[in-house]
Amino acid sequence: MQIKESPATKHLARPFELKELKEDGSFSGYGSVFGNVDLGSDIVEKGAFSRSLKEHKAAKTMPKLLWQHDTTQPIGIYTEMMEDEKGLYVEGQLALKTVQGAEAYELLKMGALGGLSIGYRVKTYEYDTETYIRKLTDVDLWECSLVTFAMNPEAQVSGVKGSTLTEREFEQLLTRDAGFTRSQAIVIIND
Length: 191
Prior knowledge:
- By secondary structure, the protein is an alpha+beta fold.
- It has helices at residues 50-59, 99-110, 167-177, 182-190; strands at 2-5, 9-14, 17-21, 26-33, 42-44, 64-67, 70-83, 87-94, 115-128, 133-147.
- The protein is globular and about 50 Å long.
């Protein structure tokens, strides 16, 4: 394994587990989950965000909440961001009075949006020349965007609260996102 420093700017789509979405546009979930190999052959290691988050806290700033990595389209703010045992936990507030913030909220409620993707600059990493996997050990975290497609195929919205779903939408949520068969979903709905 080689440890390297890199000035490269990257966007990394990571698993996004939406824990809650409220009517006021606030949400919580995971913007990055540790230990997963993504389609770009990167793994984010526990502690990779800690230095950058400490610097943001000292400066009284937060990484930006953007739409699809477009720096001209902020769609809200992050109110909380921290590392825990699982990954990068985030709490955000969508700007519902903006066109893109309102659209992002509606798409999250529908389940049409399924990922978060981080924008960062790699400070240090380890590279395995046998597996070609890069382990990110320290990154400057600039932003965390809501995105349509995540680089990690496991990235998906796991639940949405605060919205009223039709029976059909609930069935789709159970089958598409939670992995239940249609028969199992119907049993759950009818219970």
